[in-house]
Amino acid sequence: MSSTDVRATAPTDPPPGAARALPAVLPGAVAAAVATVRRNATAFGALYPDSTTRDDRYPLRPATDEFAEGANRDWTTSFWPGMQWLAVELTGDEELRASALRHAADFARRVHAGEDLDTHDLGFLYTLSCVNAWRLAGDEAARDAALAAADHLLTRVLPSAGIIQAWGDLSDPAQRGRTIVDSLMNMPLLTWATETTGDRRYADVVDRHVAQVRTHLLRDDDSTFHTFYWDPESGEPLRGATEQGAGDDSCWSRGQAWGIYGFALHHRTSGDPDSLRASERCADYFLAHLPTDGVPFWDLVYGDGSDAPRDSSSAAIAACGLLELASVSQDTERAARYEAAGREMLTALVAGYTPADAAAADALLLHAVYDAPKGKGVDEGCLWGDYYYLEALTRLTLPDWVSPWWPATRADAGADGENA
Fold this sequence. Notes:
mainly alpha; Glycosyltransferase; three-stranded antiparallel beta sheet; 6% strand; disordered N terminus
């Protein structure tokens, strides 16, 4: 069956009363998503799917000279157990709980073996795998692994600039002095580490890093750079650029979505009003640059009438970010607007960007983009799009849901999985 046989067609107009209609479609959307997670868990077992689908199916993560096929490598593998934990919270499924715990053990092995750790994305990797295993199942080994990952993340701090450097071996001069807007979503691991240990080192790094991202990656017009460079010796700010946007001065839609969510999370944990305002600025720019159906193109420079690919994963991240922002906003009118926008965006995804036949696709969400300039994962499903789509559904299905991105203790989250 070709990919066109299973894809839903993106609507040209938003569904009438989209924000109000969402509760009616939630149960069916959740059931379809959980069924796909269960099916994929059976298919992949202890192995890991690749970051994106090919014709709507996730292949195993490709082998490399260092890693076997299906191995736990790169920055996206944790979205897979992250989805399993969400499904556990939604359903109490014990088989998925056991599967997620097996993955947590593999992430513990990975960090202690020092495998593929040269990245700031340790926050993504260990929040969704091991912090979840500690919060929801009381797994002590997972707690220790998450703390080890937080310690390793601190090795990427560039003291002269006050940033955590993005990726690559820092003994390579080409990899030094750079951070990216995605980094905001890696900060919750360090915030959790401070709460868990009482050691302020982690949170102090977060506060300084976020301040630098606010100052240098958030532009005066409220759009964001994807990446920014500092002189590694002096710490002097140099220039903004992009790796995945349409141009250095355009606004990569996924980066803007990370900004909405990441700044809102920092405000929740720190109380910093500047981060709240930064999240609002990112949100207002994002919402003002959407096409008619409410799901962005891969870069916000494109609008209605463009034949550029959409990026449903950006919408899923933004929906979560908008709901988070609404929950921390101190302005009742703004909070209501962001809440409605997040719900409407999720409704658009359910209506136009999920498989017409869930059994005919491995992805929960279609029409995403990984890296358009490199032709990578264009108009496919992707692990992070699936994860954030299911997270948004979970937020609206479980009103008392506790986010893994918050620095929650086991008591807050329920050590024995009371949220399930």
